[in-house]
Every structure is written in C-alpha cells, then in structure tokens.
DNA sequence: CTGAAAGCGCTAACAG
DNA sequence: CTGTTAGCGCTTTCAG
C-alpha cells in the first residue's frame, strides 16, 4: 500500500477501488491519522485560509463584518486569519506581507490606504483576490464591497432637515476615510436641498468613543448654534451622547444625535440611537464569497464591485430643535 | 551561491560571512524576494500561528479578549486564526481538528466543553499548548486564564444586599458554563451572608441580548417580588434593561440591574450600567503570552493557571428597592 | 564559511 | 486501479 494510494483514498479522487478506499479509511480512523495540511498546502499552492485585515475588531462594526466573513469561509472549508492594523500603515503593510508569505488564498481588507504604490502593485501582482471594504471604488483595480454610504449620509441629512435642523455638525473620523467622505457628501447633498440650511461644520478625530466625546464637547464649546450632530459611526455617536449628558445638555432635548451603522446596542443607549443601518454581516459574507469564488476559478479574475443598501432607523435621539431653526 | 547560503543569510544564522549576507540581502531586496512560509513551516514544524476559538466575536467580551491576544501574538511575530464556534460542539470539534491539521503552535479557546473525552485526549496528546478562557480549572490538565468570577459574583451580591435587596434573580447563560456557575456561587455566598435574603431565582437562556430580554420579561411576569436582576454578562443586562423599558418598569426605579464584564458601552446605556469589571484585554494578552512562552520551550510544559482580579463599577442601574425589602 | 545532499509530508503525473 | 518517481520551497546535517 503506497502513500499515493492513501492520498487518493483520503481525497476522494477518482480511480480507486471501493474496497481499497474503505480499507484505507478504516485504518486511518483506527490510527487516528490526519493528513498534514501544511505539506498539502505546499504542494497544491492553496492554503484554504484567507486573511482579514481590519482596523480594530473591538469596533462592533468590524466584529459583525468579520463574523459574516467567517461564516462564509467556514461553509467553504476555509479559515480566516485576523489582523488588527489600527490606522497604522506600517502595521498594515507588514500584515499584508506576512499574509502573502503565508500564501493565503485571498485578502479581505478594510482599506488599502496604508500601502504605498509599490506595495499596492505587489499585492495586485500576487494574483490572489483582494476585496476592499467600504471603500469607494478607486483607481486601484481591487474588488470592493461597500454600503451605500452617500445614500446613508443623505438619509441622515434629510431626516434632520425634516425635523427642522438647519445647522448641523458632522463628527467624522480621520481624513483619509473614503467612506466617511461619502457620508459627508450625502449629508451635504441633503442639506443644500433644504432652504435655509447652511453647510455642516465638520470635525475630525479618531473614530471611537473618546473621539466622539471630544468632538461633541468641542461643538458645545465653540458652536452653540449647532442643533444636531451626525456621527460618522455609532461609536462616535455614543461618545457624543455621553458628552452631552456630562455637559448637562442631553439628547434629544438639547441636541439631536444621529449615528451610522446600527450596531446592536444602538437600541439600548440612553436615549436609543437613531441611526443609518448598514448590512454589516452581509457585507462580510459577500466579500468572503467573492474571494472564495475568485479562488475557485483559475486565471486572473476581474475586479467586481458590490454596493449594499442602507436604511434609516428612527429611534429617540433626534427631535426638532428647541427654538425652530437655528440663529 | 547555494540556496542554503541564502537561507542562512535570511535567517540570520551564525557562520556566514558579513559580505555574503549583505550581498544576499541586497539581491533579495532587489528581486523583492520573500521566502515561502509554508515551506518553512513544513520543515521546522512551527507555524507561528495560533488558533483562537471563541463562541462569537460579536460578543464585545470576546472582541476585547481577541484583541489582547492578537496584540500579544503580533509582538511575538505570530498570527491568529479566528474561529466562531457558537455553542455548537460539532463545530468546535471540527475547528480543533482543523487547527491541529494546520499545525498551529497553540490553541486559545473559550471552553473545551464541546469535546468528548477522546477528543480532549487527542488535543492533550498533540503536544501543543492549550489555554482555556474563563473556565474553572477542571480535571483536564490544560492551562487556564480566568477572571475571579466567584469574587465578581460576590461583589455584585454584596452591592445589591447593601442597597437593601433581598430577593434577586440571576439571569444566566446555558447550563454548562462553568464561569457563570462561579458567578452564581459568589452571588449566593453574598446573599446567604445577609439576613433576610432568600436564595436567588436562576433563569437560563442564550447569553445574548434576546436571552436577557426574555429572562427579564419572565421575571416580571412570574416573580413580581424580585427587586434586582444580576445578569451573567452585560449583553444580557442590556436585553433586560430594554425589556424593563418596554414593560414600563425601567431600571433602576422599578428594578435594579447589575451586569458583568464592563463592556465599553456599559457607560452609555440608559441608564448607565452598574457592572463588575473583568480585565478582558489583559486576559487575552495573558493567555497568548502563556502560549507563546510554552511554545518557546521544548518538551512538555506544565499547565498553569492565572486568575485575574475584578472590581465593581457603580453607575446608575441600581438603586434601593421601592418599598424596602421585598414581600 | 559555503556547497552538497537529504528530507519535511504530501500530491500529481506517468507507467505498469 | 495501484505503485513509482518527481518535486513543492525550504532548513539542516555533513562534508569540504
């Protein structure tokens, strides 16, 4: 009995006698034998592993995306290696390199922004499928999966405008986030369409709780005429809500707050957060499915782009401004 | 120039001429050469990868733990493969098998409860370090990292008792969760130490938002004399808070609620959640460090156990019962 | 200090 | 249908 016979039996290849296979299977089971995947990967060139680079898994948005991706991977018999790159471009580049070295079958990443030109080219030349998350389809020819960010921004702006807000602030993340720029664009579009509204004030800070807290505090201190806050994500919104409470000017009575993401806990904040829902789990799943599919075909795959819909979820953090329109 | 010379240069092994190494490095850089890690793994037998099996990364507790583990892994030049096993023992067993097949250097897992005896033995015999998270050190000789769950339960019970609660309900997860059992034990210890208090009612449900919602609703419907809820984790507590609001009996006025974990968003719920803080990030980090360290030494490593401290974080979801002690 | 040779554990032609 | 023969791309003795 040769190793190749064993290999063929275990892999269910054609051209092997029933009895032989049965025998192999039986004895393998008895010995508790398990083929060494790394040896197999070396020869086949496929690892059944895909890399996931997000900025921080503690952000519930990414947790949701990662779960969707993992479920899809699991169904396809793949595993995921998770990398937290924060907003550190060095870390991001090192992770990409590392994943490439490990011969992952594909990479699903947050953004390719941290990579310089040659690094992006190397990634493209590696031949493995890469899909970017929530990035506007840029010059680079990687695939993308994104929520309809501009539409989401528009929905938020429209809702605020309908309530009577005319002067709103946009609490954004760091400058280079294309998706947040899209949301701002949508907001502006909605605002310019409403008579009497002025262009939003935009603030930038880390897109986390603390950042939201600081931006809201800054608005309170420096722009007393602002009546509504559009946070670029729910976590920022939570920070803002807390800041408003601590300043004795809680939402929605003194200030409306609207978020983006519709994280599970948005329904339990005080007050429950009005926000724009994006299909996080589905986005992760879709991205992973694109990778799996591209991996299955040989030859170069064309970049593909999927935009998933968003919707407004009204809860209790927004209300009409206290004294009509501002100023 | 032989491959072995290249290998030695790149790995910084001793016994190579400065000039040779420089030359190799230079030409490798120029060609953008990167050694194939899977080939290397095959021969060295080490993968610089460790498996992480949690029940669900969307649970903020695990997100935090995973982040701590990933940071520690990153510092040691390792990557993590993330698996969500839910509470499905089949899935858990398959993941363990898969990780073993891929020759991970170690496994950090939530629980070993889903594995049957032979599977546990196989895991132990594999020789790789395994550390269990938040499990009481059981008969199996795997390492563990856990918060001081019993102490946490005690702290919660003591706090409630001091406020004047005598009849409390414990909103737990599925039966086989050792850590939640420990928390209950602590709670009971605190309650039996306070005169007039009765044993807590304990309910079981999935340990998520929905489970919390349902358990709180059940308490309202069937145990009107209960004045305080101790949730086995914050997510359950959030579900309970929501249920109380929906029932028109919001915390803390009509019912006190105390959680466990001290998730970041506990400070933003309405009302902000009083809870027991456990050092999630540090737990993940500690667990990963144990694995890395055990991997570094050869030969069998002895199981090790670390218990990390907890503390009470008072916010606004607990108050004295409305009419003194219950009944 | 460097080259040659063996081999990690598997798969994939190619014969038989 | 099954055995034989080559590697996959690296590391590691062992000579030189």
Low-confidence stretches of chain A: none
Quote the average pLDDT of chain A: 92
CATH superfamily of the largest domain in chain A: Response regulator
Can you count the helices of chain A? 11
Report the principal-axis shape of chain A: elongated
Sheet with most strands: strand arrangement of chain A: 2-1-3-4-5-11
CATH architecture of the largest domain in chain A: 3-Layer(aba) Sandwich
Tell me the major beta sheet of chain A: 6 strands, parallel
Describe the structure in your own words.
The structure is a homodimer of 327-residue chains. Chain A starts with a helix and ends in a 14-residue tail after the last strand. The model of chain A has no long low-confidence stretch (mean pLDDT 92). In chain A, helix 4 (60-75) packs parallel to helix 11 (280-296) and helix 7 runs parallel beside helix 8. The first copy, chain A, is elongated and about 85 Å long. Chain A is 43% helix and 17% strand. In chain A, 51% of the residues are buried. Chain A folds into 3 domains: 3-35, no CATH class; 46-147 and 279-308, Response regulator (Rossmann fold, 3-Layer(aba) Sandwich); 149-278, Response regulator (Rossmann fold, 3-Layer(aba) Sandwich), CATH 3.40.50. With 327 residues, chain A is α/β, with parallel strands linked by helices. In chain A, the strands form 2 sheets. Chain A has a 6-stranded parallel beta sheet with strand order 2-1-3-4-5-11, sandwiched between helices. Chains A and B meet through helix 3, helix 4, strand 2, helix 5 and helix 10 of A and helix 3, helix 4, strand 2, helix 5 and helix 10 of B. Chain A binds a DNA duplex (16 and 16 nucleotides) through residues 1-5, 7-8, 11, 13, 15-17, 20, 35-45.
């Amino acid at each position: 009995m040769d190793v190749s016979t064993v290999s063929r039996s275990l892999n269910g290849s054609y051209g092997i006698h029933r009895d032989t296979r049965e025998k192999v299977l039986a004895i393998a089971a008895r010995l508790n034998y398990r083929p060494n995947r790394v040896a197999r990967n070396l020869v086949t060139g496929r690892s059944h592993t895909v890399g996931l680079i997000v900025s921080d898994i503690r952000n519930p948005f990414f947790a949701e995306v990662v779960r969707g991706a993992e479920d899809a991977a699991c169904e396809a018999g793949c595993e995921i290696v998770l990398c937290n790159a924060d907003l550190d471009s060095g870390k991001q580049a090192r992770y990409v390199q590392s994943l490439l070295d490990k011969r992952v079958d594909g990479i699903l990443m947050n953004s390719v922004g941290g990579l310089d030109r040659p690094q992006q080219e190397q990634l493209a030349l590696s031949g493995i499928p890469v899909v970017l998350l929530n990035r506007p389809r840029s010059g680079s020819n990687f695939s993308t999966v994104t929520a309809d960010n501009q539409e989401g921004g528009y929905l938020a702006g429209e809702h605020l405008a309908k309530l009577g807000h005319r002067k709103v602030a946009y609490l954004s993340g760091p400058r280079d986030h294309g998706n947040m720029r899209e949301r701002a664009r949508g907001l502006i579009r909605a605002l310019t369409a409403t008579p009497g509204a002025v262009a939003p004030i935009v603030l930038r800070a880390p897109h986390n709780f603390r950042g939201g807290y600081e931006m809201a505090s800054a608005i309170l201190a420096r722009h007393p005429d602002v009546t509504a806050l559009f946070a670029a994500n729910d976590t920022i919104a939570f920070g803002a809500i807390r800041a408003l409470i601590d300043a004795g000017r809680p939402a929605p009575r003194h200030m409306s707050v609207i978020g983006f993401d519709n994280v599970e806990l948005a329904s339990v904040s005080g007050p429950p957060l009005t926000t724009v829902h994006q299909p996080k789990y589905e986005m992760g799943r879709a991205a992973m499915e694109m990778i799996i599919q591209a991996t299955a075909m040989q030859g170069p795959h064309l970049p593909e782009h999927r935009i998933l819909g968003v919707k407004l979820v009204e809860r209790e953090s927004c209300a009409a401004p206290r004294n009509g329109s501002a100023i």
